[in-house]
């Protein structure tokens, strides 16, 4: 997540002032020589910390890092001029981990290899128990295997936005309307404030529950039903992920985890936290 924000995972030989490498670490700040920092293994070890990396504190040397929001923990190491920017990369980082079949919730000692454990440490990283906290009527699914070839936007959006959807997304709309008794939904949108969204790519739809489900058990149950049907049919329809009620489900893991807004949305309000609609993204 940090390297995505700092360099887009490019091992840069340049940067702000004397910053270089994946994490844009600065020789003048004590991170090492340019040659050392340009070694991805050295740079990663320096970021995480421990007995061998250089003097700036690495992640495991930051007191209480395990309970910090990820962007705060990253900032504690990086001391960036844009401390909130790391959050926008979390979902991408998780998707990369999913593609690589890396279980981010696997058990293990987060201080393995470190010279000492700061006082107050030892708690699991934030989000570890999310799968046990879904509550309500949400269910996990099984990881979805298989490859879904890329598609071009070629089908007029049947929800009436005037945009174009991929054939896979249009087929999902038809199936959802039949199975879910024609719910209110909208798919294509320019999303100028978030150009990385799947909506302008014709690969996403929002299914509305009629209001803030935190205030209505009936709306919560309706949204749970929409999400559960989407998950149960994902292997046939090509659903990539679902966001609903402050959580995001990935087809790669088959599990729900907390949704933080991706650095774009306010996860505490009804729309930003997806409490008033179920977001469905397709491969």
TrEMBL record:
Residues 100-164 are annotated as: Disordered. It holds the Pfam family VldE. InterPro entries: ARB_07466-like_C. Residues 163-263 form the ARB-07466-like C-terminal domain. This is ARB-07466-like C-terminal domain-containing protein.
């Amino acid at each position: 997540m940090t390297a995505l924000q700092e360099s887009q995972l490019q091992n840069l030989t340049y940067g702000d002032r004397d910053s270089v490498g994946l994490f844009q670490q600065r020789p003048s700040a004590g991170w090492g020589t340019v040659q050392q920092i340009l070694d991805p293994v050295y740079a990663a070890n320096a970021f995480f910390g421990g007995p061998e990396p250089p003097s700036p504190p690495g992640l495991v040397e930051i007191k209480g890092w395990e309970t910090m929001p990820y962007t705060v923990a990253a900032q504690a190491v990086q001391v960036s001029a844009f401390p909130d920017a790391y959050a926008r990369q979390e979902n991408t980082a998780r998707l990369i981990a999913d593609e690589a079949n890396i279980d981010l919730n696997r058990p293990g000692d987060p201080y393995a290899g470190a010279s000492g454990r700061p006082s107050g440490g030892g708690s699991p990283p934030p989000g570890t128990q999310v799968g046990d906290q879904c509550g309500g009527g949400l269910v996990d699914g099984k990881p979805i295997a298989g490859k879904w070839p890329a598609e071009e936007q070629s089908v007029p959006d049947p929800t009436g936005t005037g945009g174009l959807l991929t054939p896979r997304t249009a087929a999902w709309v038809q199936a959802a309307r039949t199975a879910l008794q024609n719910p209110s939904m909208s798919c294509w949108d320019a999303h100028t404030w978030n150009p990385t969204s799947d909506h302008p790519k014709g690969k996403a739809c929002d299914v509305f529950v009629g209001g803030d489900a935190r205030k209505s058990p009936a709306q919560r149950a309706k949204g749970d039903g929409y999400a559960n049907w989407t998950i149960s049919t994902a292997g046939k329809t090509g659903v990539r992920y679902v966001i609903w009620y402050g959580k995001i489900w990935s087809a790669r893991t088959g599990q729900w985890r907390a949704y933080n807004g991706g650095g774009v949305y306010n996860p505490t309000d009804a729309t930003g936290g997806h409490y008033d609609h179920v977001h469905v993204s397709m491969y």
